Amino acid sequence: MSEQPLLKVRDLSKFYGRRIGCANVSFDLWPGEVLAVVGESGSGKTTLLSCLSTRLMPTTGSVDYRMRDGAYRELYHMSEAERRFLMRTDWGFVHQNPADGLRMTVSAGANVGERLMAVGERHYGNIRATATDWLERVEIASDRIDDQPRAFSGGMRQRLQIARNLVTNPRLVFMDEPTGGLDVSVQARLLDLVRGLVADLGLSVIVVTHDLAVARLLSHRMMVMKDGHVIEQGLTDRVLDDPREPYTQLLVSSILQV
Length: 258
Ligand SMILES: Nc1ncnc2c1ncn2[C@@H]1O[C@H](COP(=O)(O)OP(=O)(O)OP(=O)(O)O)[C@@H](O)[C@H]1O
Prior knowledge:
Elements: E1 7-16, E2 19-29, E3 34-38, H1 45-52, E4 60-66, E5 72-74, H2 80-89, E6 91-94, H3 98-101, H4 108-118, H5 124-137, H6 154-166, E7 172-176, H7 184-201, E8 204-209, H8 212-218, E9 221-226, E10 229-235, H9 236-241, H10 246-253
């Protein structure tokens, strides 16, 4: 891991009127690190992810992102165009519902190729070859390249969404309940695939999940949220095997095995 954080989050808070979305969240994310944000429904996970990915403006706080040239930029001081450029190139966002992250009425190949074109690739042959390669990496047969994702199963759609996100070699990927809507057997296979890709590509990931098994399998470090606050954070194995906070103990003991 390199010696400088990719993301420096300080005192991030988002209020919806008087209701707390998330409050006083601070952490560093290091290159190659997978951070899981866990907590019950309503604990603030989505609000935090939305603020970090600049989909939502926080009420207070700052997020500094280390650009490819090594300089830090404050995300909320960037122009809308700069943020959109980051999202198209340096970042990925894997939605729980693949339909939110895919274009359902264009082919699988175009879904992947489009992201390549956004980073300047123009050669049709290269785009198709890279798209084919990525479909294979996410275990979609290359003869499905011209099919639209609406003809795919839920698991295939999710794998296609992952290919679309990773094809540009992003440095930071946000994932919102990436296995949420899938059958248990499909989830296990997808998690295995994601874990392999994240390790191979050395990605930094922030994954939101209410499923501690997902956190266990994917993440190095985790943050536990309750009522908008981070109440415990640490190495994933430590938090799950030796939770310090009573609330985390309750979360861990409420599932039979993680
Ligand atoms: N647009 C909104 N307007 C008002 N309150 C909101 C809004 N979005 C979220 N909240 C409130 O902020 C708090 C945190 O919600 P958030 O959706 O971030 O939690 P979550 O942990 O992601 O839950 P879930 O797992 O159900 O998505 C909740 O009290 C919620 O009611």
